[in-house]
Amino acid sequence: MNLDEIEAGLAELSLADEGRRFTVRQKLQQLDRRLKGMLKEGDDPRVLVAYARCASLSQLWETAVARWSKVRAKHPDYQDVASLELARSYSWLGNHQQARQNFSRLSKAFMKKREARKCLQMIQRRERMFAAKVLTELLLDDYGFKNEATARSLMHATLLLRGVGTKYAENITCSILRTLARIDGRDVAMEAKPGFKASLKAWLRPFFRRQVDLSARLAKASTLSPVPVFLCGLGWSGSGALHDYLRQFPEVATTFGGSEVKIFEGKGGVKDLLAATDWRPVLKEFVLRRVWGFVADSGISPAKAYNQSLVKHVQKRKLLALAKATERLVTRVMHDNGNSLEDNLACWLREVIALAAPGGYRYCLLNNWLHGQNAALAHSIPGAKVFVVVRDPRDQFVDYNNQTDRKKKSAKAFVKEMQAKLTAVIRAAEDSKGWRSSLTLLRFEDFVLKSRLRLELAADLGIDDPAMPNKHFFNPEDSKKNINIHLGYSKNNDLDYIMKNLAAANDALGGLCFPK
């Protein structure tokens, strides 16, 4: 592969769809190794630039800073490109001062370019988010909301910094605080007041950008919620291929761009809420952490909490509707409307899906909102469809250790984890006859290799013309490369250990794990 082909490959990967991120990462690693070898052969500036761009596309920001700094120091012709990429990298690392300094080094002509304007918008957005994190930490000092005025001011300011308009942020804040007060057993008639914290806007002006309040338009959105389709993987089991296949059809919508929204699993999620004996504090945790991204746990950063919350994925113009839906959920639960907590949560989830998917769609994909071992959490959602994708565990093990940036897993640790996951899937399959939703177990290898199975699956969902998708995201030939990858693995003892210790689970699942 010559340099022109590598540059063309990098340009193509920069435009790759988010759903192909694992394939993209693999290709970038290959190009990175190739470029590293080419650097040893000579000092071509194009090779060094491509090498630095490879780090940026891989989102290895510290590596990108080191490489682009070298480009700027050694090759004056690439000053503007290197300064722009350094500004972007520093911004992602949270060093906003360095980001601004590097951006200021751009020439006036280069600053007028579209890519420079987009970079500046990103830097400004991340500066506002940084200020929001600081305010969130201040808010956490008053996590119990004993001082309601302080909590209200800080929450309002944080919403402003996330790009929400003044009046709109005020209404959302009031709704959140009413919700929390009801969990504490206090009914409050809290409404937005004229001139609420007018001085706050002046204090926030360096970070503040006014948005049009579009909340009134939400009143017109009275369409029915589409049927939720949960696509559940078991960690590198291939659920992404099923997601790519189903989202091709015009009857199917994807929620929040196919993001994995963490409202069921993790601390303060639906799973914790349903398991709690004293569920009031967990309900408050659910509202603050999983819905709005405010945390009181020192072990997680405010930025990470925000990224894992529902508010991260909801459009700004729909935030007030989300606040009202959550307020209704808490009101129903606290006033004991005769329905179980599960039923009330199911009703709330359908409202959230209505916010996520526009009208006119029959189904709405929830990609890894639940993992396979927790599929039973969807049992109370009427009409929901739950798919659990099972893959050959040997391929899962090899794929995880080949592609993950985290610590490699031993075969023993992997088997222990998979035994727990598969046991939960087996239990869910046995209990699913009494569910209000439907459960389907799907073998990844069969789904990829058998086109007839894919057509039957689409037909069962009521897809009008399963042979003629509206768009093309799924390529069976790409997915076939992920089958039997364990055959090239050198440590056969690991593979034998996995097959031996998961044989019982495989039998209970009717041979879904290992080929016959």
Automatic annotation (TrEMBL):
**Superkingdom field:** Bacteria
Q: Which Gene3D superfamilies does the annotation name?
A: P-loop containing nucleotide triphosphate hydrolases, Tetratricopeptide repeat domain
Protein name in the entry? Sulfotransferase
